[in-house]
Amino acid sequence: MNMKKILVTYPINKEALAELYENYEVYLPNEGGLKRDQVLEMIADYDVLIPNFGFYTDDEMMAKAPNLKLIANYGVGYNNIDVDAATKRGIAVTNTPKTTCEPTAELAFALLLAAGRRIGYYDRNLRIPRGVDWGIYADAGISIFGKTLGIIGMGRIGQAIARRGVASGMDIIYHNRNRLSADIEARYNAKYVSFEELLKTADYVSLNAPSTSETLKLIGEDELNLMKPTSVFINTARGNMVDEAALAKALKEEKIFAAGLDVYEKEPKIHPDLLELENVVLSPHAGTKTIEDRDKMANEMVQNIIGFFEGKYDVERVN
Q1: What is the rounded distance in angstroms from the CA atom of residue 4 to the CA atom of residue 32?
Q2: What is the pLDDT of residues 135-160, one digit of tens each?
Q3: What single DSSP character describes residue 278?
């Protein structure tokens, strides 16, 4: 029996993929990874694709892969894949939600603290001659204790952020496509509210909803105008859910107090106005970028592949 062939499009720690090498033929690229045109040339013979976030895995690419049975995403978000096209072609799509939850929540809460307490601003300006005004009220931040944390998208990551908020003395409100069970709400003492009410009342707004056609540009000028001038906005979901130009304008005009961003509309490019502002903290889509979690994500992805073909593990299916 021929070994299934797996095309990996970017460098992943080979040791984290070790279980695949027992029964599968794995192509692992050198540093830098594969470009879209390279994948188009290579994909015809492969059974599994581990796609790249640097380009869209679309129907054109799938059409060149008659043997393709599985697209195994290395990450929880899968807006880099045309899932509808994959479904129509009978190609399974998997993702890695278990291992991405806690590190993403960690970074979201770190951004929340850094933006609210102005840590990035302090750090930058203490290093230059201008310095920071050490006056009692000068350049003051916003506390989190006793404040309201509004979570848009109360899934695994949203709940992990809520847990951190509760531990820090915050009140939790949330908006979701579907209201959570009473048991889950009680766990965080969380109150379900409308989208508009959340924006109007939350001191900290964390965006954690999935990226879909319905959530495209979910946060724009109108939504930002609903928020308090003392509110802090956090996005660790996807950049296309926020109008970056409108966000930069709101920050510049102090319509909101601050923002902490890990994702952007046109990654790796960032709206130039955001780069000039002192009241925004930026990180490079690093929600899962810890040494431990990168390998854990690879292991979960490997288990999806082996589970799909051999039934040895549970499989996290998207379609």
Answers
A1: 24
A2: 999 999 999 999 999 999 999 999 99
A3: S
Selected catalytic residue, list 164, 175, 285, 300: 285
**Catalytic annotation present for 285:** yes
Q: How far apart are CA 133 and CA 302, in angstroms?
A: 52
State the catalytic residue, choosing from 118, 175, 238, 271: 238
Is 278 tagged catalytic? no
117 is catalytic: no
Check if the beta carbon of residue 83 is closer than 8 Å to that of residue 311. Answer: no
Q: In whole angstroms, what is the distance from residue 282 CA to residue 121 CA?
A: 11
Q: Which domains does the chain have, with CATH numbers?
A: 4-98+291-310 (3.40.50.720), 101-282 (3.40.50.720)
**pLDDT grade, residue 291 (50/70/90)?**
confident
DSSP 130: T
Hey, is 48 helix, strand or coil? strand
Which listed residue (187, 221, 267, 294) is catalytic? 267
